[in-house]
Fold this protein.
Amino acid sequence: MSKKVLIISTSPRKVGNSQTLAKKFAKGAEDAGHNVEIVSLHDKTIGFCISCFVCQKTQRCVIHDDADIIAQKMLTAEVIAFATPVYFYEMNGQMKTMLDRTNPLYPSDYAFRDIYLLATAAEEEESAMDGAINGLQGWIDCFEKTSLKGVVRGTGVFEVDDIANKPALQEAYELGKAL
């Protein structure tokens, strides 16, 4: 059965390593017959949440920028994959800011159930992703109907295209194809 898949690439680089993982995950999901959209944050305007909590009543953010539009896409997606470079052992600021701006989804009848993380880091150790996984898990825990279904750990990548010869690229494709 075809699913609606939304991939949010949070890399500040237009052609970064995590963006490459996002595209490979998308290719796998498309090859499996799913409806896939990639949203890249590198050229989006996303302000910080101002904690007004109006969204808890209206289910829309009072800040009308790209985060509001992306959150509405998230609302109807059945599967969401986040792609992020890991900075200082944590998800990048773009991803964290986007997650904070999903407050309008909390009281809604959201469709997403399955969450994936596609992460890249300069460090070789897989544990370099643990902070990003824990941070995303905190967000997931707020959405009772969701769970983290898979993580791709692209380690040892720093320069653009370092991911090209890493097993994480094939892992991203296979994970997307297995949706």
